[in-house]
Amino acid sequence: GFLSTGDQAAKGNYGLLDQIQALRWVSENIAFFGGDPLRITVFGSGIGASCVSLLTLSHHSEGLFQRAIIQSGSALSSWAVNYQPVKYTSMLADKVGCNVLDTVDMVDCLRQKSAKELVEQDIQPARYHVAFGPVIDGDVIPDDPEILMEQGEFLNYDIMLGVNQGEGLKFVEGVVDPEDGVSGSDFDYSVSNFVDNLYGYPEGKDTLRETIKFMYTDWADRDNPETRRKTLVALFTDHQWVEPSVVTADLHARYGSPTYFYAFYHHCQSLMKPAWSDAAHGDEPCNFSKNDVMLSAVVMTYWTNFAKTGDPNKPVPQDTKFIHTKANRFEEVAWSKYNPRDQLYLHIGLKPRVRDHYRATKVAFWKHLVPHLYNLHDMFHYTSTTTKVPPPDTTQNSHIPRRPNGKIWTTKRPAISPAYNSENGKEKWSPEQEAGTLLESPRDYSTELSVTIAVGASLLFLNVLAFAALYYRKDKRRQDTHRQPSPQRGTTNDIAHAPDEEMPSLQVSQGHHECEAVPPHDTLRLAALPDYTLTLRRSPDDIPLMTPN
Question: Where are the membrane-spanning stretches (predicted)?
Answer without folding.
Answer: 449-472
